[in-house]
Design a protein that fits this description.
This protein is of the alpha+beta class and 437 residues long. It is built from 15 helices and 25 strands. The protein is globular. The structure holds adenosine monophosphate (AMP) and glycine.
């Protein structure tokens, strides 16, 4: 089988690494890939993730059997529709289904129709009316740009002033361009967050184990929001026993709605959950693997990922065809100091071999490239150092021990990835959760 993976992050490196383990996979191409994907025996091809014409041409030229888009952008642009026209299997939802991530207003409407528990909200395309609403309901309030804003279009406003400022930035200053044509104003929810992902074949949904991301840049969930500073799986706040019920509550009703609309959802559907004292609420949907959640999740996946993805595309997903290691996986993201704001590039990275010599450790590359035979950083998130351990404390210890082997000038990472889960295991959670509810 010949595969094309689209993307250039740690998630895509993990996808390539796992797909490479499939005995049926002969060749893997990555568009555009990074300094790690080419080390997995894959071929990087310099095609951008949003250049649909070039991606289709590449898939045709290389006689690709399965296309695996990593990020949301090609999906919302309709890569699945385009590959389908070309007769090429593509693991993901069509452009209609991808609107679950591409438009928060659309996601809210589907959730309403499907009866999925979520925060109360109001949608506005007029800034004056949005301001009026803030005056009526007051703070706290969550302000979201409707469209894709690279994770930056959400403001949790503690005061009306902050809420009004966010509305101005999104709608008047157009900080996120057309993504701010509409805003979603939402009730602020309190609880612990968890990432819940399912493989979907249009009709069936099979849960992956839970994971937890760390979106804030600094320890203690402080600092600006990032793409994700680390993740682990399973997350004690959402146990294996709760997964089927969670799929019934948050994923399967959505699959039924989309199938009813004539657009059965294929791919990974990811519900960002807030586990509140009143039960789980969906904060958002993503229509792909999360980055960095993908790295620990795939470190635990047992089975032939290429086959699972093909089964999804062909509508024949078999829950018995794959499983998950009982061990815990934890990944810590090494960033260039300053990320997500200004940060240096071209930093020399050493020590990956020594890190990977430790048992259960795999280093996934995000923003790396090879310059004159040297591995250097090319992005804000540089590596995701991932380790398996018998339990969460062991996985955390192993990942941080591996990080110590790696050196990069101006490197930065959080030192508390997994602490929240460990606190919950030891019965000292800081936030109310839905455990046991
Ligand atoms: P989203 O892109 O919708 O997941 O939002 C990004 C982040 O904003 C989430 O991971 C939460 O930390 C926070 N957030 C989003 N919606 C809410 C909400 N209704 N209440 C509290 N926090 C929220
Ligand atoms: N880690 C969150 C995301 O991929 O959206």
């Amino acid at each position: 089988m010949r595969i094309l993976v689209i993307g250039s992050g740690g998630r895509e490196h993990a996808l390539v690494w796992k797909l490479r383990q499939s005995p049926r996979v002969s060749d893997i191409f990555v568009a555009p890939g990074n300094g790690g994907t080419c080390g997995e025996g894959a071929t990087n091809v310099p095609v951008a993730v949003d250049d649909l014409d070039a991606l289709v041409a590449l898939a045709r030229r290389e006689k690709i059997d399965l296309v695996v888009p990593g990020p949301e952008l090609p999906l919302t642009l309709g890569i699945v529709d385009r590959m389908r026209e070309a007769g090429i299997a593509c693991f993901g939802p069509d452009a209609y289904g991808a609107r679950l991530e591409g438009s928060k207003a659309f996601a809210k409407e589907i959730m309403r129709r499907a009866g999925v528990p979520t925060a109360r909200c109001a949608v506005f395309s007029d800034a004056a009316m949005a301001r009026q609403y803030v005056a009526e309901v007051g703070a706290p309030l969550v302000i979201k740009a409707d469209g894709l804003a690279a994770g930056k279009g959400v403001v949790v406003a503690e005061s009306s002033r902050e809420a009004l400022q966010a509305i101005s930035e999104i709608m008047d200053d157009r900080a996120f361009g057309a993504a701010g044509d509409r805003v979603v104003l939402e009730e602020r929810l309190v609880g612990e967050e968890a990432s819940f992902l399912c493989f979907c074949d249009g009709e069936r949904a099979v849960p992956l184990p839970s994971a937890q991301d760390h979106k804030a840049a600094w320890d203690g969930d402080k600092g600006p929001n990032t793409g994700g500073m680390g993740a682990y799986s399973p997350a004690p706040v959402l146990s294996d026993e709760q997964l089927e019920r969670m799929a019934d509550l948050t994923i399967r009703p959505v699959l039924r709605e989309l199938a009813g609309d004539g657009h059965p959802f294929v791919g990974v559907l990811y519900a960002g959950l807030m586990l509140t004292a009143d039960g789980p609420r969906v904060l958002e949907y993503n229509v792909r693997f999360g980055d960095p959640e993908c790295q620990p999740l795939l470190a635990r996946l047992e089975g032939d990922l290429a086959q699972v993805m093909l089964d999804c595309v062909n509508g024949g997903l078999n829950p018995a065809s794959f499983g998950h290691s009982a061990r815990t996986a934890l990944g810590v993201v090494l960033t260039a100091r300053g990320y997500p704001r200004e940060y240096p590039k071209g930093l020399t990275i050493t020590g990956i071999e020594a890190a990977e010599a430790l048992p259960g450790v795999k280093v996934f590359h995000s923003g790396t490239t090879i310059r004159e035979q040297t591995l250097v950083s090319s992005g804000g998130r540089v590596l995701c150092v991932t380790a398996l351990g018998d339990d969460l404390p062991a996985a955390q210890k192993a990942a941080y021990a591996a990080l110590e082997k790696i050196s990069m000038p101006d490197g930065f990472y959080r030192t508390d990835i997994g602490d929240k889960g460990i606190r919950r295991l030891t019965g000292r959670p800081e936030t109310p959760g839905a455990a046991g509810k």
